[in-house]
Amino acid sequence: MSRIEARFSELSANNKKALIPFITAGDPSIEQTLMLMHELVKAGADCIELGVPFSDPMADGPVIQRASERALAGGTTTDDVFDLVKQFRQDDDTTPVILMGYLNPIEVMGYQLFADRAEQAGVDGVLVVDLPPEESHEFNQVFSQNHIDQIFLVSPTTHGERLIRICEVASGFLYYVSLKGVTGSNQLDIDAVSGKLEEIRQHTNIPLGVGFGIKDAKTAAEVAAICDAVIIGSALVERIAEYSDNSEQLKIEVSAFIHAIRNALDK
């Protein structure tokens, strides 16, 4: 059983929902990212989605785009991301880590080498935003052999055969993009999200996570009532940017934010 499957099974047995925060590796620095990963777990995170910095993050809004820019300006590389996960695993061998990013760096390194490096570092899943399910056969084969889950996105406009195909190839959990547009968008419609999740559940039994547009504890609790995992990205990355110059305050603010959301999910 993978770490992701084990974590969702444990949460389900305890009637709890997963909290999955997103941060960008290398923002504000690799050292601070490692500190933040551990603080997120202490504050109640169940999995960590770790962004691999990329120069053209087209699915991301301005907040996460700037995080990638800061990480790249600081010299963060894909090798650094693997080393970061490996360091995290020295003290935490149970929290699932999912790499979120784009296909170009993976193709540059090569599927097999990237999968080997990811498995050796202790990565549990990969979410490649710009990999269409119709073109994912070779990718899925390689990463499955390395025991790494392939997390796929489903959007409000995903229907029919495409939805069925995604459900067939996805593992770990499905990431439902609750809004049309990029990360950090507004105006979340809970009823619309609920209806779409019901449609998705007709084609898969794997956990469903919801992200995009979740900015606070109240919204997180509303979303948690209809899904298996709540994914927090831009609202967290905004706080990291605001307090990046003060490591101690950064730790306090991030911990308090995630702890408040954890409490809301557990009520």
Spell out the CATH superfamily. Answer: Aldolase class I
Tell me the total number of β-strands: 8
Radius of gyration: 17 Å
Under the CATH scheme, which class? Alpha Beta
Question: In total, how many domains does the architecture comprise?
Answer: 1
What is the overall silhouette? globular
What is the fold named in CATH at topology level?
TIM Barrel
Strands in their spatial order, largest beta sheet? 1-2-3-4-5-6-7-8
Stretches where pLDDT is under 50 for at least 5 consecutive residues are: none
- The CATH architecture would be Alpha-Beta Barrel
Q: Overall pLDDT, averaged?
A: 95
Largest sheet: 8 strands, parallel, barrel
Number of helices: 12
Strand content: 5-15%
Structural class: alpha/beta
The helix-strand sequence is HEHEHHEHHEHEHEHEHEHH
Separation of the first and last Cα atoms = 29 Å
Helix content: 40-55%
How would you explain this protein's 3D organization?
Helix 9 links the parallel strand 6 and strand 7 (208-211). The chain has an eight-stranded parallel barrel with strand order 1-2-3-4-5-6-7-8, surrounded by eight helices. The mean pLDDT is 95. It has one domain: TIM Barrel (Alpha-Beta Barrel), CATH 3.20.20. The protein has 267 residues and is an alpha/beta fold. It has helices at 3-13, 30-43, 62-73, 78-91, 103-109, 111-121, 137-145, 160-169, 190-201, 217-224, 234-242, 247-266, and strands at residues 18-24, 48-51, 97-101, 125-128, 149-154, 174-177, 208-211, 229-232. The protein contains twelve helices and eight strands. Helix 4 (78-91) runs parallel beside helix 6.
